[in-house]
């Protein structure tokens, strides 16, 4: 005997069945205002425990599933139910409340189709067959020509309308987990059915963890980009917040057309049409996300929420940045982050990072950050000098965003952002506003030695600016800064043997020519400051070595002879 709840009249005439007009459509509600909950409480014995949260649809219907039934509601029908598991599955197979709207009553027996139920979606009315012995899951629009034809002929044919049952939707209880896809990145098994996707926990060998929960994750079925991120198949999976979510811990909870789902490391909000997918990570999720970037050295510090979009962790000269709006994270040079913070959409979505090699004038490696636009094209950005940023856009020429101060306070220079010379064991900062270089001694850790004197040099600045220009070819061009900062084959030459400045530069005029004269640890530099029409070799200075400089050259010559003969 069917366990069917009878509500209201058990007999509805043909005139009533086909003659009732659909209700007028109104703005979709966001809840049943407690009607479903009240109904479920009073019929708990027939319905069993809830298996989903209340969900409201754009057609104005709200519904909630239970162990042995489903309750629907809309303002025109009130709360109505099917209290038989098989009938509920047939109703869902036909389209469920999202397509068919709200039940107008419990199921009742038709002379032609067996057990049926009628629904209203606000735009039309449907008749749904829920009888397992006839054509369960078939449906017909009662306002359609097909329905009118059937109504006119059914007394003669004594038959139901033409069956149009949709394929049976397999539930999680029917999944063969030994045939499911193993996702190593999540220690999970993934089964994608005709209509949705299910996930359960797996061990390191891909076997299902005994007793692990089976959770529905519909967006893994409908959103390919999110699927690739979560499974680790995307080009930019590293740094994807979706991959950092881990395993789902609950089924989605719908509120109208938007759902929220809980995971080990945060929550995911997504829409039915996948136009909105947003992640919110907890601390463990942020740790997982940062670790996925494989950035070294590790960034110390604490996670800090900047605004409703950005979360960061700052350490040294690097910044971990998570953008909740794009769902991706990366690592940025502090100078790049400072510029990015002004407009997080300027360069595109964070997409990755890499260490770039020496740039041809004695610099150590520097951190670059990649961003992608909607077409997947890459823009690369890195820091320059003390506050500036260099941008290599997806289209167009490389350009510099100059954030350098108009005047230089040597005490305010962040030497970690400056060029490094191994042979001089020094840090060099170029102020591009006037092409003046500032030098300071560095220690064995490559950092500036605190308290060491800082000296400026227009000679070094002029040559370094030449090297940083677009016309410079780092492979074939040379000048005195390149030789000063690198020597010859890593050994001292006459130019590099001059060492670091030990006194402030002086300006002298001889025969109408203005010179910069400066004492260095290895001698004296005398450089003619070029005018507007400077010659190609205008950067060359007269170098006079003292005993220290001469000793450096002699030692280098002896080394060269020992190496090269």
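Q: What amino acid sequence fits the structure above?
A:
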């Amino acid at each position: 005997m069917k366990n069917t709840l009878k509500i209201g009249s058990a007999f509805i005439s043909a005139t009533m069945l086909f003659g009732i007009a659909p209700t007028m459509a109104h703005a979709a509600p966001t809840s049943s205002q407690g009607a479903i909950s009240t109904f479920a409480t009073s019929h708990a014995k027939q319905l069993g425990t809830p298996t989903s949260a209340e969900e409201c649809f754009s057609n104005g219907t709200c519904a909630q599933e239970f162990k042995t039934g489903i309750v629907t509601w809309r303002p025109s029908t009130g709360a109505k139910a099917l209290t038989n598991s098989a009938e509920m599955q047939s109703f869902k197979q036909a389209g469920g409340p999202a397509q068919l709207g709200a039940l107008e009553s419990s199921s009742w027996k038709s002379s032609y189709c067996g057990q049926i139920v009628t629904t209203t979606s606000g735009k039309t009315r449907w008749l749904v067959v829920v009888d397992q012995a006839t054509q369960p899951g078939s449906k017909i629009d009662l306002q359609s020509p097909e329905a009118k034809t059937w109504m006119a002929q059914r007394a003669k044919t004594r038959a139901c309308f033409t069956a149009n049952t949709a394929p049976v939707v397999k539930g999680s209880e029917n999944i063969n987990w030994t045939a499911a896809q193993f996702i190593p990145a999540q220690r999970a098994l993934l089964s994608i059915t005709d209509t949705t996707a299910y996930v359960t926990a797996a061990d390191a060998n891909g076997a299902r963890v005994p007793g692990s929960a089976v959770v529905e994750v519909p967006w893994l079925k409908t959103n390919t980009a999110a699927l690739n991120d979560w499974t680790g198949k995307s080009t930019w999976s590293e740094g994807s917040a979706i991959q950092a979510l881990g395993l789902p811990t609950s089924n989605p909870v719908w509120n109208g057309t938007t759902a929220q789902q809980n995971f080990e490391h945060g929550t995911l909000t997504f829409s039915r049409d996948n136009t909105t997918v947003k992640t919110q990570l907890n601390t463990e999720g942020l740790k997982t996300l940062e670790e996925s970037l494989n950035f070294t050295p590790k960034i110390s510090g604490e996670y800090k929420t900047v605004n409703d979009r950005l979360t960061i962790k700052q350490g040294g000269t690097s910044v971990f940045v998570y953008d909740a709006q794009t769902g991706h994270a990366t690592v940025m040079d502090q100078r790049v982050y400072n510029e990015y913070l002004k407009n997080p959409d300027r360069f595109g979505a964070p997409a990755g990072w890499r260490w770039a090699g020496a740039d041809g004038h004695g610099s150590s490696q520097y951190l670059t950050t990649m961003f992608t636009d909607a077409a997947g094209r890459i823009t690369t950005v890195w820091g320059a000098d003390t506050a500036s940023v260099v941008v290599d856009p997806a289209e167009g020429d490389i350009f510099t965003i100059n954030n350098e101060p108009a005047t230089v306070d040597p005490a305010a220079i962040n030497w970690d952002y400056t060029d490094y010379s191994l042979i001089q064991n020094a840090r060099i900062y170029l102020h591009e506003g006037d092409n003046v270089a500032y030098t300071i001694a560095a220690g064995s850790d490559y950092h500036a030695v605190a308290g060491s004197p800082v000296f400026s040099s227009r000679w070094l600045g002029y040559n370094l600016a030449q090297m940083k220009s677009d016309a410079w070819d780092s492979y074939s061009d040379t000048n005195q800064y390149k030789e000063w900062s690198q020597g010859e084959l890593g050994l001292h030459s006459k130019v590099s043997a001059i060492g670091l400045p030990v006194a402030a530069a002086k300006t002298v005029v001889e025969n109408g020519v203005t010179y910069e004269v400066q004492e260095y640890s290895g001698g004296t530099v005398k450089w003619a400051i070029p005018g507007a029409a400077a010659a190609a070799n205008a950067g060359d200075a007269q170098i006079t070595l003292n005993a220290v400089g001469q000793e450096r050259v002699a030692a280098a010559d002896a080394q060269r002879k020992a190496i090269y003969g």
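Q: And what stands out in the fold?
A: Residues 547-564 form the longest helix (18 residues).
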